[in-house]
Amino acid sequence: MRLSAIGDVCHAAALVHRIKTHWPEAELTWVIGKIEYQLMKTLPDVRFIVFDKKQGKQAVADLKAAVQGEQFDALLMMQVAMRANLASRVIKAKQRIGFDWARSKELHWLFANKRVKAHEHAHVLDGFMDFGDALGLPEDPKPQWNIPVPDSSQRYASALAEEMGRFAVISPAASKEERNWLPERYAEAAEYLKSKGLAVVLCGGPGPVDRKLADAIKSHTDAISKDIVGETSLHDMLMVLKQAELVIAPDTGPAHMATTVGTPVIGLYAHSNPRRTGPYNSLEFVVSVYDECIKEQTGKSWKQLPWGKRAKGTSLMSRINTNAVTEMINRVLTDTK
């Protein structure tokens, strides 16, 4: 059970791949959010139950009806939010596996009868893999993904790549505006990418924050080759990210989508610890001011604080300077040749 968000279901999909690799006969049911389902719905041999949280009590009733008369060998309770905890009560399972005590927020522990092993300072993806360990799955050397996409998405991305040539993607908008970098600095990064021979594609979701930020970036530069914000399905976007040389993004879903298809990501972080939520295979490319922000706000280093402690403020991302990002662009282009 993992309802949201896009980045987190990307992490969960790595566990699905691990289960299906080692236990190919296992019958998997994934209770997932409505939007997130649009990305994961093509996973092979997985039954999905879509939980639309906007439906409130009706969503729980629909979940109850969907699992009526079933008992599962194990329920993996991979979300600590109270909404998910309460909804999980309608699912009958011999083992109800939840997070360890340190990660059991919002009374999560009350709804589980088994807990994963404690894992200090675990990335979210590694935390999800702890559930595989609790099941007794063999370990894998590194996470893997298999998210099939329709042919139309392949064609869309191929046509874009043919039009653009070598290109980078900037996916500028996070779910909260305070986590977004400044539009003029995104514009400066775009101009630098162009100077390195890369076309620049803006991508993002259909929401007003995404559109507003994309327009603001374009008002500062003419270096944007293509703006596809709000125009793609999640599968289209996934294939565009796969074709890109690199991706620049804050703490947002496309950063983790890019990770699933092997594209290096320059993650921009100030509010959350990238060691926990950064793009899993590109942590060495993260540009972060989180450590200094959290130290100033609490007087303690991140190692002395509860794991997942966020820094607060509406202007923290302004502390990331353009030079740090352009230097990282050089490093990515050099290291990933």
Please tell me how large the radius of gyration is. 20 Å
The helix-and-strand class reads: alpha/beta
Distance between the termini: 38 Å
Number of strands: 11
CATH class category name of the largest domain = Alpha Beta
Percent range for helical residues?
40-55%
Shape: globular
**CATH domain topology of the largest domain:** Rossmann fold
Protein name: Glycosyl transferase
Pfam families: Glyco_transf_9
GO molecular function: ADP-heptose-lipopolysaccharide heptosyltransferase activity
Keywords: Glycosyltransferase, Transferase
What descriptors fit this protein?
single chain, 337 residues, alpha/beta, Rossmann fold, 2 domains, 6-stranded parallel β-sheet, 3-stranded parallel β-sheet, 11 strands, globular
Describe the structure.
Helix content is 41%, strand content 13%. The chain has 337 residues and is an alpha/beta fold. The chain has two domains: 6-135, Glycogen Phosphorylase B (Rossmann fold); 152-335, Glycogen Phosphorylase B (Rossmann fold). The chain has a six-stranded parallel beta sheet with strand order 8-7-6-9-10-11, with helices on both faces. It has a three-stranded parallel beta sheet with strand order 3-4-5, covered by helices on one side. The chain is globular. The relative contact order is 0.11. One of its GO terms (cellular component) is cytosol. GO terms for molecular function: ADP-heptose-lipopolysaccharide heptosyltransferase activity. It holds the Pfam family Glyco_transf_9. InterPro entries: Glyco_trans_9 (IPR002201), LPS_LOS_Heptosyltrfase (IPR051199).
